[in-house]
Design a protein that fits this description.
236 residues
Length: 236
């Protein structure tokens, strides 16, 4: 059984974002699957959405995605999708590509000179990557990873959480996760086929590129803030 996963923490995204994501997955994933939301508040989630509580409560915002690599009561393969993606095509190739790879992702479109993953779409073997969060917890406990706060334009406040390890800044979970999974030179060898997962800001402001299965709305704007026909067609 394929486990389709998302994470909802706090009030940044309403329950409607989870419900729409589940609807998009249902329309575009013919494979047998469960849809599971890791959340601190299940209010407003529609029938058919399974929920799991967070196993750790001191993480904030995107850093809660590290809990995907914790000891979850799930088996098999996890396909993670950010709440602010728009599913625009059949997800089967994303769910099944490179089946022997323990982790498959998409290279961040703005970090091609220093490869790292964009964590909006990830497929991985569940309970096979505990070191991602174990190393994080250990370094925080030892005082080697230090939490700081910065200005976040979308939130409109100084609530963005970053971690520093000496002079190395981890601006979000995807930077930390990338450095735990593969050497930089190997990241590009463990990715979805080109063109299947794209950036709205870089590739999709005017039209939906051929072959795109997931459009990622990282940063601004979010799907509810744009007036683009293909987004309105699919984001429901």
């Amino acid at each position: 059984m394929l486990n389709v996963l998302c994470v909802k923490w706090g009030t940044k995204y309403p329950a409607d974002y989870v419900n729409r994501l589940r609807n998009m997955v249902s329309r575009n994933l013919p494979l047998p699957h469960r849809f599971i939301c890791l959340t601190d508040n299940a209010a407003g989630l529609e029938h058919g959405i399974e929920t799991l509580p967070f196993l750790q409560t001191d993480l904030e915002y995107c850093w809660n995605k590290l809990l995907l690599f914790d000891r979850l009561p799930l088996e098999g393969v996890g396909l993670y999708l950010d709440l602010d993606v728009v599913v625009t095509g059949d997800l089967t190739p994303i769910a099944t590509t490179r089946p022997d790879d323990p982790f498959v992702g998409v290279v961040d479109w703005y970090r091609l000179d220093d490869l790292q993953y964009n964590a909006s779409v990830m497929r991985f073997h569940l309970n096979r990557h505990h070191h991602v969060i174990d190393n994080f917890r250990r370094k925080v406990a030892e005082g080697r990873l230090v939490k700081k706060r910065e200005w976040d334009a979308y939130l409109g406040s100084h609530d963005k959480v970053v971690y520093w390890e000496g002079n190395v800044r981890y601006g979000g979970d995807q930077e930390w996760t990338s450095r735990q999974l593969y050497a930089r030179a190997d990241i590009g060898s463990h990715c979805f086929p080109p063109g299947m997962v794209l950036s709205y800001k870089k590739h999709g402001r005017r039209k939906l590129p051929d072959g795109c299965r997931v459009m990622v709305f990282h940063g601004d704007p979010k799907p509810h803030e744009v007036d683009v026909p293909y987004v309105k067609l699919h984001w429901r």
